[in-house]
Amino acid sequence: MGGVLYLHGFCSSSKSTKGQFLSARFAEIGVDVTSPDLDEGDFRNTTLTKQLALVGQLAKELQPAMLIGSSLGGYLAALHAAREPTTVPALVLMAPAFDFANRFNTLLGEEIDRWQKEGSLPLYHYRYQREVRLRYAFIQDAMGFEAFPDVRMPTKVLHGLGDKVVSPRLAEQFAHDRPNVELEWFETDHSMLDATDRIWPSVRRFYARSVPAHGLA
After folding, report:
1. How much is the mean pLDDT over the chain?
2. Is residue 215's pLDDT more than 80?
């Protein structure tokens, strides 16, 4: 107990820039961060259901004090927290990709028909630095999940005002009428990479409040 489970974004990996940054900062204060490859090395056949199963397994094994997710990882973190609240004492969501399936369908437009017809779609994957095909089963599966998971534990949402990938309005909609959710804005884009030095103090303070036994100030 006391560690952090970090969930990376879509088409990313355990070596994501934000994940490594937070791991290094937490290490400085004696907190371990676990950052799994959510597709388990099989991006072509991954689904949110499979990724949630991995998150659930790790949460039970590690018993983390906090779950942090970025973009799609933030949406996954919220989905897991809504389903297994006893395994998530506190939650940090960075530019969480709420309403993922609907937005992805809209973004792809007519490409959805080609995806369904061909059975898979090439997408640029940052781990491999090239396009990797993803099966249509991914979006079929994603459409079965709620747009805004009902989380009840202390939750911090960090979102960029200049986010063009996930609208800041979605963060506002999620936080509305949820007194357990704190929403903090940053002057940055979806990647939030130019704001990490400002994000870390906020995350650290929230961790200290959520895990007082760790003795952080």
Report:
1. 94
2. no
How far is 65 from 91, CA to CA, in rounded Å?
9
CATH number of the structural domain 4-214: 3.40.50.1820
Q: pLDDT (tens digit, 9 = 90+) per residue, 86-124?
A: 999 999 999 999 999 999 999 899 899 999 999 999 999
Q: Domain extents for the chain? A: 4-214
Whole-number percent of the chain with pLDDT over 90:
91
What angle, 0 to 180 degrees and rounded to 10, lies between the N-to-C axes of helices 48-62 and 72-83? 60
